[in-house]
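With this grant's support, we have settled on a layout for protein records. An illustrative entry appears below exactly as we store it:
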Amino acid sequence: MPLSSCPASTRRIASLLVVTTTLTAAAPALAADGLFDEMRFGVTTSIASGDKQEDGVFPSFTVYFDPLDADGAADLGEKLLRPRIYTGAAVATSSNGVNQAYGGLSWTFDMTKRLFVEFGAGGTVHDGDLDDPDGDGPQLGCRFLFREYAAAGVRLDDHWNVSATVEHASHANLCDGPNSGLTCAGLALGYKF
């Protein structure tokens, strides 16, 4: 069956898989050139309730860049002034789910040699419902939203890490219309170059 005759959610997942496979295949060469610092594959699910709830899970892929040498920061002040930059996407697996492309700044703080916490802030663009009261899923008011996330993780070795994440996106009442927001939690597997 041609991909064009598949449901929209299947086409979105197939598109994310193509992008992920392409980036994964190119990752060693790009990392060797110093282009990016880390890749993370994750999955989240909505933790909102009522009409803000989205069904299904959201596979995601995020790439982190370190042009300011956050890894080389010696103290808290330098860490705060030298964030990493991230960009990524999350794909909905249900009809009332919201697809997102996002980016922003990220700060990682080591609690021990293996344990870390991370915070990020930026923005997201989505394809969700803006203000249809009869729609299925959250009403988001405008196409561009603020996005924040927090993670707690453990480094398995010098390259691999696993983290638990919680993320939220909303327009902070800066545009007209409803502001249900998107709130998800999940797990991510990261590979640091």
Q: What stands out?
A: The first strand starts at residue 38 and ends at 46. The chain has a mean pLDDT of 87. DSSP finds two helices and eight strands in the chain. The CA atoms of residues 108 and 118 lie 4 Å apart.
